[in-house]
Prior knowledge:
- There is one protein chain.
- The protein is of the alpha+beta class.
- Helix content is 66%, strand content 7%.
- It is built from twelve helices and four strands, in the order αααβααααββααααβα.
- A four-stranded antiparallel β-sheet has the order 2-3-1-4.
- A hairpin with a 5-residue loop joins β2 (175-179) and β3 (185-192).
- α5 (119-128) packs across α8 and α8 runs antiparallel to α11.
- The longest helix has 59 residues, at 195-253.
- Residues 1-6, 19-53 and 105-116 have low confidence and may be disordered.
- Residues 26-52 are annotated as: Disordered.
- Keywords: Coiled coil, Membrane, Transmembrane, Transmembrane helix.
Amino acid sequence: MTKTKIDELSRAGPVIDDMVAEQQGAITPAPSSRVETVEYSRTQDRPQAMPKAGGRTPWRLIVFSLIVLVPFLASVMYYAFVAADQYTAEARFAVRSLADEEKEDESNVSILKMTPASQDAYVVTSFIHSTEILRRIGAYLDYKAMFVRDGSDFYAEFDPDDSAEEFLSYWNNQVYTYIDGPSGIVVLRVRTFSPEDSIKLANAILEESEKLINELSTRSRNDMIASARAEVERTGKTYGEALAALNRFQKESGLLSPEAQAEQTGKLLTGLMAQKLELDSRLFVIQQSNGIDSPTYRQLVLGRSSIEAQIEELRNQMTGKEVESYANTLNAFARLETDRMVAEKLYEATRHHYEMSLAAAMRKALYLTVFVQPMLPEEALYPRRVMTPAVGLFFLFVLWAILSLAWASIEDHRL
């Protein structure tokens, strides 16, 4: 291209620019140099985006309104005009046993030393959140009516047409329990729509929990002493049979104590033999003095004969026939007395073991100690009409921010 043609194009540049500006509804100032003319002509070669007829749709504002503003405004309206007041009754108790207290007394317990919560505390809290306590309380208290008002609060109230499983889930939301691990203290909170119902339901829960602890203690005590009690009954029966056999023998023999009777008979026999020896001495003296024909001699002879007959009779009682002898009686009595003594010793030993088992069971007996009684609430702590919507707004905003970042990341990957 020659210099003349270049000059012609440079002079025609402003004319072309004015024509383009008139078509777009704007007036573009003429270029002041040759370089600007060339750059301007290059920009005109690019395709121009035509604007849409209705303008761009504000999708970000719509999504923000649906995710954040609408739920927040709905929660504000609910907590301001619909949500019903709920009153909370609180109680605190602990499940203890005498064995735990004795261990604490015997050991050096410091301030920093803590005892973990026992399994019985978890048993009680599990019982509070079960259908068993509902069955027991329902026998004398209409607990479902406490959670049904006029039907205005559709979210917090319980629907009477719901099933038992749905009510158990609702119950677990209204009845709160917490176990402090180091101390084992159980915190119970009950929420209803009136102060009177809250304290009435809390007292009913505490009463049924205490009954459960007593049942567990009784069952544990019975299991621990069942074998000892059976052994006491068996040895007691054996001891009774031994006593009955001994009494029957005493009635049949007519002797309360054959040993004492034998001892008495032996004393009588000894005395008679001493008298016989004395008579023999006197008779010997009379015979030496040739006084056989005297009346005194004859009386002494008769007395000796009588004493000899008594001695013979006593000897027969002690060493005579097997059935009638004292030796047989003493053997039978000794056998029965031995059986009685053995049965008595066994019975005393089993009784001692039973008493020790009973004492151990009593030390392990559980009892529920309520040290914070439920009080009549004066102010409705729920619902939290300001805190709950504010916290909800924060989480909704976080959700919207996460979704926005995720969508921006997806758009970046498309480019």
